[in-house]
Each structure stands twice: as structure tokens, then as C-alpha cells.
Specification:
This protein is mostly beta strands. It is built from four helices and 28 strands. The chain has one domain.
């Protein structure tokens, strides 16, 4: 593969009531390859995910997704996984809201499953969903400048317990897929210089290198890390956290452990002085983020919001979703 962009696009489509025959892994938009764009779509009313993507260097932006996962749990609004080499995608300015999944795992607004990495998640609004952003043993992802409202949690970084997946013969053939594309040679080694080191024995399969910065979260739980993780392994800085529960540590999933009743190794509210000190010393602000009226869907920031002081940048809310163009003459609001 040359990593040359294809330049395909799916733009300004209203997609709903799909997936009636093949319910799962069958998004309203399904993307593979390199360098495609999915923009300004409205996707809703379906049994599973909204956008399913694989490959490299895609742009997924300005889409509205809601009312999904009618018949599934452990599913994402924007969903991917299964290959370390699938990197470089930007997911920005999407509004994913009002969806709850069924069964284990619920609905994750943006779900980057085991083990792909190096994805940028910027300027999205995730509201009234089970989990906002979920990583499963991925690396080097950026979660920046997003708004989370009533998510439990807003950001969930998980350690996949089965290390065998990261060795030859593992269930998802992660190692074999890397060798098939000659990941230590150009173009992959030059386009993604971190990739050749992902199978180093030190910390194999650990979700290192993530940055969670300049976000806003309120009305739910802020952060969920796997037991054994701490703020030296993931950068959590300059966020405004208005949630009552600021951190939970998910108990490790050992072999023969019941996945439906994993439970928490620790739960820390905003009143826990030690955790609050760890957060604030990294530039995080614990308090009201100053959103206008998130319960009624108004995610604009007030002029006196503390988020402006952290470097938060305005999200172009009015541009999200369907838009008038040469093919669509009007948009019903």
C-alpha cells in the first residue's frame, strides 16, 4: 500500500432506518482505504453503529449521529478497530447524542477498539451517551477540545487483558497484519514513525501516549482508567471538569472473571482532596464549565467560562449536520 489518498467522500446525506438485515458492523457509512472524507451527514435510527471505518488518514467531520444501537451493546457511533497500522484519521466537529446501547459495554460515542492508534478526536460534542470516547489498548491518540455532557464516563482508557493478542498467532492477527504491510519500512515507518515500536516487549499492549487536553465535561463521570494506570501514562491536562465523579479505576479483567460484573477498584469524587490536587496541578479546573444550557442542547460557552482560560477553542456548532448545497436546497431544523 502506498498510503496515497483516494479522495472519496460521503457528504450531506440523511441516512436512517438502515441495518435491518445485517444489523452489526454495518454503519450508515462504511469506509475503508486511505484519505476519504465523511462530512455533514445526519445518521440515526439503526440497530448498531453510525459510521464504521477502517484504513488511514480519513477525515470524519460535521456529522450528527443519534438514536442508534437499538439492538446492540459494545458498539460505537463512530467505530473502528482490529489493526495497529490503521492510523492518522481525524474525527472532528461531530455531534453524537441521545443514544444508549443494550447489553455489555453499552454505547460509546467514539469507539476506537483494539488496537489502532494515532487518531485525533477534536471539537466533538458527546451528550447523553453511555461512554463518550473509548480506547482499548490503543496508543498515541489525542482527545482535545471536546464537550462531554452526561457521559458515564466521558473518556474511558482500557487495558485489554489478553496479551496473547499482541503475539504471533493472536486472535486478531495483529502481528501478522503489521508484517503484511512491512510496517518497519516506508511508507508506514516514515508516515507513522511511532508504529515500528508498538511491538517492543516493554509495555506490550499498554495504552500509552494518549493526550486528553482542553476538554469540557459535566453532568456525569469524567475519566475511567484501567486499574494500574495513572497520570504518568496518559496526559490529562487543562480540562474543565464539572462532573461530581472525576475518576474511576476499572478493576482488571482476569481470566474467568465475569465481564458483566467487573466493578471498580476505586472511585473518586471531586471532593477527594488527593485526586483533586493531582488534577489541578496539571492545569485542570474542577468546577462549573459555564455551558449555556447543555440539558436543552445548547452547548455554547458563556463569556465567563473558565474553559477560555485553559485554551479551549470555539466549536462551530452551527455548521454540524446537513447543509444547503447544490443538491440539498433546504434543511429542516
Amino acid at each position: 500500500m502506498t498510503l496515497a489518498p483516494a479522495g472519496n467522500f460521503a457528504s450531506n446525506n440523511h441516512i436512517y432506518r438502515f441495518g435491518e438485515i445485517l444489523q452489526t458492523f454495518n454503519g450508515g457509512v462504511f469506509v475503508q482505504g486511505v484519505g476519504d472524507t465523511v462530512a455533514h451527514n445526519c445518521i440515526h435510527n439503526a440497530p448498531s453503529s453510525g459510521i464504521q471505518y477502517y484504513g488511514n488518514d480519513h477525515v470524519i467531520e460535521y456529522n450528527e449521529l443519534y438514536d442508534l444501537a437499538h439492538e446492540s451493546g459494545d458498539v460505537g457511533g463512530i467505530n473502528t478497530g482490529a489493526d495497529y497500522s490503521e492510523m492518522g484519521t481525524v474525527i472532528r466537529y461531530n455531534y453524537i447524542h441521545d443514544t444508549h446501547g443494550f447489553g455489555e459495554g453499552g454505547f460509546r460515542g467514539i469507539y476506537l477498539d483494539l488496537p489502532g492508534s494515532n487518531t485525533t478526536i477534536f471539537g466533538n460534542i458527546l451528550a447523553n451517551v453511555d461512554i463518550g470516547v473509548f480506547f482499548n489498548s490503543r496508543r498515541d491518540n489525542i482527545v482535545e477540545n471536546n464537550i462531554f455532557f452526561n457521559c458515564h464516563p466521558s473518556v474511558n482508557i482500557y487495558i485489554w487483558p489478553h496479551v496473547s493478542y499482541f503475539h504471533p498467532g493472536g486472535a486478531w492477527k495483529i502481528v501478522e497484519k503489521l508484517h503484511a504491510i512491512r510496517y518497519t519500512e516506508p511508507p508506514y515507518s516514515t508516515r507513522y514513525p511511532m508504529l515500528p515500536h508498538y511491538l517492543d516487549s516493554a509495555g506490550l499492549g499498554m495504552p500509552y501516549g494518549h493526550s486528553v487536553i482542553h476538554n469540557i465535561s459535566c453532568g456525569g463521570t469524567w475519566l475511567d482508567l484501567s486499574e494500574g494506570m495513572d497520570f504518568t501514562q496518559v496526559r490529562v491536562e487543562h480540562n474543565v471538569v464539572g462532573d461530581s465523579m472525576v475518576l474511576v479505576l476499572t478493576r482488571k479483567w482476569y481470566p474467568n472473571f465475569d465481564p458483566y460484573h467487573i466493578g471498580y477498584a476505586g472511585e473518586y469524587t471531586r471532593n477527594d482532596s488527593r485526586i483533586a490536587a493531582e488534577m489541578t496541578q496539571r492545569g485542570n479546573i474542577i468546577g462549573d464549565p459555564g455551558l449555556v444550557d447543555p440539558a436543552r442542547g445548547d452547548f455554547h460557552l458563556k463569556e465567563n467560562s473558565p474553559a477560555w482560560r485553559t485554551g479551549f477553542r470555539k466549536i462551530p456548532v452551527e455548521q454540524i449536520g446537513l447543509t444547503v448545497d447544490e443538491f440539498r436546497k433546504s434543511v429542516r431544523k
